Amino acid sequence: xxxxxxxxxxxxLLFAVLPCPxxxxxxxxxxxxxxxxxxxxxxxxxxxxxxxxxFSCGFQDAGENAxxxxxxxxxxxxxxxIWTANPGAPVNGRGSRITFGRDxxxxxxxxxxxxxxxxxxxxxxxxxxxxxxTGNLVISDDPSTGGGLPVWQSFDWPTDTLVPxxxxxxxxxxxxxxxxxxxxxxxxxxxLYDGPETSSIYWPDPNPSDSPFQSGRTxxxxxxxxxxxxxxxxxSSDNLEVHASDLGPGVKxxxxxxxxxxxxxxxxxxxxxxxxxxxxxxxxPCSAHGLxxxxxxxxxxxxxxxxxxxxxxxxxxxxxxKGCRPLFTVTNxxxxxxxxxxxxxKFVKVPHSDFYGNDLGYNKSVTFEYCKKICLEMCLCAAFSxxxxxxxxxxxxxxxxxxxxxSAFDGVIYLKVPFDFDATAPLVTARSTAGLACSPNISVTxxxxxxxxxxxxxxxxxxxxxYLFAFAGVLGVLDIIFITASWWxxxxxxxxxxxxxxxxxxxxxxxxxxxxxxxxxxxxxxxEELGRGGSGVVYRGVLDGGKVVAVKKxxxxxxxxxxxxxxxxxxxxxxxxNLVRIWGFCxxxxxxxxxxxxxxxxxxxxxxxDTDRKPLPWRExxxxxxxxxxxxxxxxxxxxxxxxxxxxxxxxxxxxREFEAKIADFxxxxxxxxxxxxDSLQLSHMRxxxxxxxxxxxLNVPINAKVDVYSYGVVLLEIVMGSRVSDQTTAGGERLDMxxxxxxxxxxxxxxxxxxxxxxSLQGQFNPRQALEMVRISLSCIEExxxxxxxxxxxxxxAACDDEDEHPAYR
Length: 811
What we know:
Helix content: 10-25%
CATH superfamily of the largest domain: Transferase(Phosphotransferase) domain 1
Oligomer: single chain
CATH architecture of the largest domain: Orthogonal Bundle
Number of helices: 13
CATH class of the largest domain: Mainly Alpha
Number of strands: 48
CATH topology of the largest domain: Transferase(Phosphotransferase), domain 1
Strand content: 25-35%
């Protein structure tokens, strides 16, 4: 079937310069009657303002092309919402509307007419809606002043914030993610973490030895009410009284529960419009539970950071709330196991750390040995805490939640791991509020499960024997290394440079160094060519074990043997489901080759642009777009910031039989001669393919990861259109440049009419929501470098659109 994306683009371009109809709306008012509305396109105008101008309500930016209907302090530089009608469910930036209908109902409608929130009120034309000086949005039965009896008010439905005079009662609570501030059944105001796997109260101090009375609270009340007053005092019926540090009238304040689970009072700086924290419920941020998820450890130094306990790894590198999973399995637990517990398990000592709650028991006046024995013999025990607090207290732990590390904490947690597990390896991955950190400062000590050494619990002769055994062990390891090294140098046809000996031995698993003869034989003297590009030619090969591989002969490699091997020891460790796996390399003189996994379904370009093939279905196109984004995000963001692909194009996106995307040729820019400059690269020559290269390549400026973002945006648009962006022409046959392409895309995004842009061979079988989002992302990718999103941002946006159960089609 002929492709007609170019003609359609030319048709759209004719209308891209036409003026759009303008809209106007009346100045903001304090009270509105039935039939009033505000379009999201007019989000710069408030729906209502309070009589004294302190508060405004209307549409508020909630992300890329996403808006919420909110109330905020008018003078605040950042219009932080004090109330939101639709938290977590923003509406589209086009076609959405807030309406106070003639039926007396306040309703928020998305672009497709779906009502995402409404006040569930009724009363015909007798009702009015007002924004009061208190910040309370009120639907009232008094049509003249709006001051009659309220039938609905926002103060009764708080989200994450209280403003002065707004009460927190037994019927309301503040919620932010998994955290909430509420009155418990004992009439005490508490902070609760309520996650998918567990829940726990963490404020006031949840220590079992403490009671509400010891925290200055009382359970002897039934009113359950808390109020933030104008002078900065918060009073609660459970006897809690807190003061803002800038106590006094005349300051605009709010009390908010944050995404980190802490409750704070914020004061507005009248001169700058910024917010300042003037009180916080938790002095130590890690006192909040669940911040780092299961098996995660929170640390504050001086910003909040999360890390996995030794022996665990992150479940999702984008979301710490999902916690960490063990790198080991316990399969021989229980009385039926052949070996004794001491032979099956050992413990990893993590000082100054603990996991609150989930205790399997509570034992007083016991020895360390006895406490360890309890955990060894309990299959459910994952760790134990032992405290020499004058009583010898033992806490076996069933689940590792609410972990924290603090130098001020004298306790120690002992993690239970299989006896043969190497818990001293650098397993911990940590993320702070600033990003990913790969080397957290958590020290660990391995404690054997048998009656041997227990770190600091052994002294005297025991310590001498420990050192003796350690010394003997080191000598044994050195012997093995010496023998292995000698064998290697004698058996190898060429030696490895001494400076690379240690680095090369770090490359483990199936990654290996091949000889040129091996690869020549595996490819049948480089007989079957799979493809070629600017970096070299790829051949099909079969290794001795029968494994099919792709062997790439590299050209224009500026690295010498030593530098090339050094780079390969790093590239060989890169492993992601959306990246082609590198099995090994060859470097012999002028011969530089890479050995890849063989991906059998060819490259994306052959499925998109070959008109003799069956059109690639939309479901596969979206999965390829998402998988490619995730692969590039891994290269750019997850501890490998130096990996910039520099040649993202359909030819370098290979497909499995299930149409999973696998990016090829990553890391090759690293093999070109360059100088590092922060997070940028100064390459000796331009890299990439015309049509996919970012404009900064021609400007002779340092290159960063945004060149890949640009190229991805072009590829994403081609996935939607089914044709090359560089082939698009006007009706007169002239090629469109990227500025004209961007103009077309802006028109498509503005009108939301994506149908003419989508590959006609799909015959309307596509998901319009996903297609429009892909066009919007593509447009953002080809903008100026500073305005382009990151690949991590793109992957998250696409993942939010990934709904395989819902694939509506335009017909």
